[in-house]
Write a structure and sequence with these properties.
28% helix, 27% strand, 9-stranded antiparallel beta sheet, alpha+beta, two-stranded parallel ribbon, 5 helices, 271 residues
């Protein structure tokens, strides 16, 4: 879940600090007798101006990152980007629940984990761009709009991690196909009645309970790095034939614009 500028991790170090409406409230409390600034603008006008500037800074950052992925970030993404960034408190992110079955280690190094994920509903979108990074960036931008009020509830739904991408390979596992599915786990309180997406490309799917073999890796995710991680985990597993041979999941936990991302490769055990 990655996007052209997919900012799941909040503002980058060194980026301009955000000024929130709460900050403006604090300014008002400090100066209760001052209804206007020296330039004659009201606090409400100043708040609106600063909010517009914040939107422009965030949009510009995303557009710059998007160009690195050969993805155009349209201006109508400004509001979802701002809302997602403002609500991106690490303490409020919900991690997808799972049951740990086994941890495989060697000389103190974690090789992989065997986990069971329960039956759950996901918001999914299928993409088929020329490059993997383009597909996940464009797919996550669509999911961002759904998360940020463009749904039947009209509410901000909240971020869950990881954002996952289903990828496919040819039979020999020598290369990836272009078709991917980017998916967002619906928060627990929305599992029974998920809000309906306004975007008809987004489908709510119920995934069955699944056992996965998960291995962490750092860095960028592209066709080469994903194939490398698939081959590495296949070598480590005692019985890789128990898993699907052409379908895998990439799980992303951090801002995809970061150089040292936290990712996982998941092998899916056959039903």
């Amino acid at each position: 879940m990655e996007t052209g500028g997919c900012r799941m991790g909040g503002a980058e170090p060194g980026a301009p600090a955000m000024v929130t409406l709460e900050d403006l409230d604090g300014m008002a409390e400090e100066s209760p007798d001052s209804a206007y600034h020296s330039n004659g603008s009201s606090l409400e006008e100043e708040a609106e101006r600063m909010e517009d500037e914040e939107q422009e800074r965030l949009l510009s950052y995303w557009q710059n990152v998007g160009r690195g992925h050969q993805v155009d970030v349209p201006r109508d993404m400004a509001e979802p980007i701002q809302q997602l960034t403002r609500n991106n408190n690490p303490q409020e992110r919900q991690t997808i629940p799972f049951t740990l079955i086994q941890r495989k280690e060697k000389l103190g190094e974690l090789l992989y984990e065997k986990r069971q994920y329960g039956k759950a509903k996901w918001a999914c979108i299928k993409m088929k761009e020329k490059q993997y990074e383009q597909s996940i960036c464009l797919g996550f931008m669509k999911l961002m709009r759904y998360i940020c009020e463009q749904n039947s509830s009209g509410l901000y739904l909240g971020i869950t991690i990881p954002i996952v991408t289903i990828v496919h390979t040819n039979e020999s596992q020598s290369e990836m196909t272009q078709s991917v599915t980017v998916a967002y786990y619906l928060p627990e309180m929305l599992q029974d009645e998920p809000p309906h997406p306004f975007d008809s490309d987004i489908i709510i799917e119920e995934w069955p309970s699944t056992i996965v073999y998960s291995r962490s890796f750092r860095g960028i995710t592209n066709e080469d790095s994903i194939m490398r991680e698939i081959n590495l985990l296949a070598e480590i597993l005692e019985s890789p034939e128990l898993c699907l041979q052409d379908t895998f999941i990439i799980a992303g936990y951090t801002n995809p614009a970061a150089a040292n991302r936290h990712n996982e490769i998941w092998f899916l055990q056959r039903p």
